[in-house]
C-alpha cells in the first residue's frame, strides 16, 4: 500500500510550494521586482551607485531646463 504515502507527500509538497510562492509575492509587492538570488555586497554597492547616478542625471535634466 505505497499509495498511502502519497497524501502526506502531497501535503508536504504543497506547503513547500505555498511558502516559496508567498515569499515571492511578498517580496515582489514590497520592492516591486523579484528577489535577486545571491545578492551580495558588490551587488548592493552597484545598486547604490546606480541610484546615485540616476539622481545626478535627473538633477542635471532639471537644471538644464
Automatic annotation (TrEMBL):
InterPro entries tied to this protein: NADH_Ub_cplx-1_asu_su-1 (IPR017384)
Bilayer topology: Single-pass membrane protein
Residue ranges crossing the lipid bilayer per the database entry: 6-26
Domain of life: Eukaryota
Keyword match Transport: yes
Listed GO CC annotations: mitochondrial inner membrane
Subcellular location: Mitochondrion inner membrane
Record family assignment: Belongs to the complex I NDUFA1 subunit family.
Biological role: Accessory subunit of the mitochondrial membrane respiratory chain NADH dehydrogenase (Complex I), that is believed not to be involved in catalysis. Complex I functions in the transfer of electrons from NADH to the respiratory chain. The immediate electron acceptor for the enzyme is believed to be ubiquinone.
Name of the protein this chain belongs to: NADH dehydrogenase [ubiquinone] 1 alpha subcomplex subunit 1
Amino acid at each position: 500500500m505505497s499509495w498511502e504515502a502519497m497524501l502526506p507527500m502531497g501535503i508536504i509538497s504543497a506547503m513547500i510550494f505555498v511558502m516559496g510562492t508567498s515569499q515571492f509575492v511578498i517580496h515582489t509587492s514590497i520592492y516591486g521586482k523579484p528577489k535577486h538570488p545571491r545578492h551580495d555586497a558588490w551587488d548592493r554597492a552597484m545598486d547604490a551607485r546606480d541610484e546615485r547616478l540616476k539622481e545626478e542625471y535627473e538633477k542635471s535634466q532639471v537644471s538644464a531646463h
